[in-house]
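forwarding from the other thread:

> can someone predict this with thymidine-5'-phosphate?

sure thing
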Amino acid sequence: MNDVIGKLISLEGVDGAGKTTHLAYLCDYLVKRQVTVLTTREPGGTQVGEQLRSILLDAAQPIAPLTELLMMFAARAEHIQKVIRPALLAGTWVLCDRFTDATYAYQGGGRGIDSQNIEVLEHMTQGSLRPDLTFLLDLPVEVGLRRRRGLDRSQDRFESQDLEFKQRVRLAYLERSETEPRILCMDGTLPIEAIQYEMGKKLGQLFEESAL
Ligand code: TMP
C-alpha cells in the first residue's frame, strides 16, 4: 500500500492468551510518545464487522467452514476500507486485536482450509497491506482454557471447540511465526511485566525506525 505513513500492529494468540491486557499497554506506550493511536479488533471494528462478529461468535449457530472464512474476510474488507486504510493514510498507528494471521490459524489450522485459498482472499482483500509488526502470545491451550474459566460468561463458538481444534490453532500460529519475520512470538505464561518489557523494546525499535 503506497503513501501509508502510520503503522499497523496486530496482536494474536489462542483464546485466553491475555491480548486485552497487552493491547492497553501498547496503546499507552505509543500515546506517551505522542503517537496518534487507534485500537480496534477483528472480526469487528465497523458496524457491519461487529454484526458479522456476533453471528460468527454465536455458539448456537453452526456455520460451514467456507462460510466462516468468507465472513472473516467480508468483515476485514469493510474494516480495511472504512477504518484501517484511512487511519494509516492519516499517519495514525493502528493496534488491531487479531488480523489475518488469525485466519491462517483458526480457519487454516483449526478448520483445515488450504492456506493457498486463504492467500487468494488475503490478496483480494488487502492488496499488499500486512501488519508491520505482530505480537503472538503463545501458551499451552490448557492454560488459556483455565484463564477463560474464571470469566463470568458463556463460551463463544470458537471457545466451545474441542481441545484438538485449539491445539491445531496454536500449532498453526507457531508455524506461521517461523516463516513470517514480522511476528514476534512471546511466551504468554511469563509474568505480565516481562512480556511488556519485550513488547516495549520491539515497539520502541519500530517507533525509532519510523522517525528516521
Ligand atoms: P476475540 O477477539 O475475543 O479473540 O474473539 C474472536 C474469535 O474469532 C477468536 O476465537 C478467534 C476468531 N477468529 C477467527 O477464527 N478468524 C479470524 O480471522 C479472526 C480475526 C478471528
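The mean pLDDT is 95. thats all i got for now
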